[in-house]
What we know:
Shape: rod-shaped
Number of domains: 1
Number of helices: 4
Radius of gyration: 35 Å
Bound molecules: zinc ion
Largest sheet: 2 strands, antiparallel
Structural class: mainly alpha
Strand content: under 5%
Number of strands: 2
Amino acid sequence: xxxxxxxxxxxxxxxxxxxxxxxxxxxxxxxxxxxxxxxxxxxxxxxxxxxxxxxxxxxxxxxxxxxxxxxxxxxxxxxxxxxxxxxxxxxxxxxxxxxxxxxxxxxxxxxxxxxxxxxxxxxxxxxxxxxxxxxxxx
Length: 138
Ligand SMILES: [Zn+2]
């Protein structure tokens, strides 16, 4: 139903002019169209958000895990290199067993390296942790 803004007469939905006073209902149409467009816009916005959230929920965790893993691995490698240099390593081919042992001990004592290793291990999923240690044992 369209209520005429001028005379208040009720007109059937879709009427272009008032059946009583003859005024054109352009404004009412415009308002209805605007309301509908706003509703559609809101629906599209909500639907877009739902899609984004679903995609994030699916893609997010593995991507986050992969990124984090790459970071902690890089950090571990980087720390190993830094500590190795600080420990006067790596041992070259003609370094004696004492020198090698000294470097190994120095690496093992490095709190930076222990922390980097711990961070990496903590970030690893249990199944990946097992895979890594199994690979290391080979
Ligand atoms: Zn009217």
